[in-house]
Write a structure and sequence with these properties.
Radius of gyration: 27 Å
Shape: elongated
Number of helices: 4
Largest sheet: none
Strand content: under 5%
Distance between the termini: 96 Å
Length: about 110
């Protein structure tokens, strides 16, 4: 019985590993770049809220200070997410105050 080894296939497997790694790194780079671009677009759209007057922003449940604070987030994060989180926190606080006021009236 004779054993024949095919060394060409083992070379192909080891040669494809760096190529695969290069494609994986390129994909990660493009995903990161896409996230940065999306964050920059979001930042520019959030900056447009500063053009609204205080009354319009109050109707939305935010203030100029909230928008300015959201714009201080790191460049790779979307400021609108920070703004939405602040608004949700304010709503929770308003709800808690309303519940406390209702409880105080009952007592």
């Amino acid at each position: 019985m004779t054993l024949i080894l095919d060394h060409a296939s083992s070379r192909r497997a080891s040669a494809s590993r760096p190529v695969h790694e290069a494609f994986r790194l390129a994909g990660a780079l493009f995903r990161r770049l896409g996230a940065l671009i999306a964050a920059e677009i979001d930042r520019r759209q959030t900056m447009q809220l500063l053009e609204f007057d205080a009354r319009a922003l109050r109707d939305m449940g935010i203030s100029h200070a909230d928008v300015e604070g959201a714009l201080l987030t790191p460049i790779d994060r979307k400021p609108s997410y920070t703004l939405a989180a602040r608004r949700a926190e304010a709503r929770r606080a308003e709800r808690e105050q309303a519940l406390e006021a209702a409880a105080a009236l009952r007592d």
